[in-house]
Design brief:
single chain, alpha/beta, Uracil-DNA Glycosylase, subunit E, 8 helices, 6 strands, 11% strand, globular
Length: 226
């Protein structure tokens, strides 16, 4: 995993993403003007022996692109790590910087695209360029029994990831929807959730009980092994 991390953080495959992440690291947000931004691809984080994988879209420009740890330092991460704490997967409910003492238990958190994209919208070729890193990441997580997909983008990425890894998915494949659980014979189950973005949490489309229900379902899957 450390070798993969070092290769990942040195990646410059996507010129648009490289330019954007580095420009954000120089221009900064006023409230973070004293920070030295990470401004590189952001590796996954958590328990390498974990049975649960949480897959997001991409690092936030002033979140993980700033802190260097996925889902750390932005409102989406506030929701995610608080939910993981309530579900017993994290030792604390907050995540503000990479050395804040957060520890994850039985879960690995990562993203389908490793660099912050403009408008949170990676292009298809950027998504595809990152696929090899996510595929190798999954191969280094031998105990994964369920993948929580945060949003439709992550769901589509997980479907491609499992198929590319030689895992046969159900036919017809159920559509993405919050709370949908898709058992996968010979591979990890797919558990769907709306993304904890402000667009969803501020509008009430995603509530804390709804997110808690997703992780309760994921807990049920990994404990049962089905």
């Amino acid at each position: 995993m450390e070798e993969l991390k070092q290769e990942l953080v040195a990646c410059r495959r996507c010129p648009r993403l490289v330019e954007w992440r580095e420009r954000i690291g120089v221009e900064k947000r006023r409230s973070f003007r004293d920070w030295e931004y990470w401004a590189r691809p952001v590796p996954g984080f958590g328990d390498p022996a974990g049975r649960l994988l949480v897959l997001g879209l991409a690092p936030a420009a002033h979140g993980a692109n700033r802190t260097g740890r996925i889902f750390t330092g932005d409102r989406s991460g506030d929701w995610l790590y608080a939910a993981l704490h309530r579900a017993g997967f994290a030792n604390q409910p907050t995540s503000t910087h990479a050395d804040d003492g957060l520890e994850l238990r039985d879960v690995w958190v990562t993203s389908a695209v490793k660099c912050a994209p403009p408008d949170n919208k990676p292009l298809p070729d950027e998504r595809d360029a990152c696929a090899c890193f996510v595929r190798r990441e999954l191969a280094l997580l031998p105990n994964v029994r369920a993948v929580v997909c945060l949003g439709r983008f992550a769901f589509d990425a997980a479907v491609r990831l499992l198929r590319d890894s030689g895992i046969a998915l159900p036919t017809p494949l159920p559509r993405f929807g919050h709370g949908v659980v898709i058992p996968v014979a010979g591979g990890p189950a797919i558990v769907c959730s709306y993304h904890p973005s402000q667009q969803n949490t501020f509008t009430g489309r995603l509530t804390e009980p709804m997110l808690d229900a997703v992780f309760a379902a994921a807990r049920g899957v990994i404990e049962s092994g089905s």
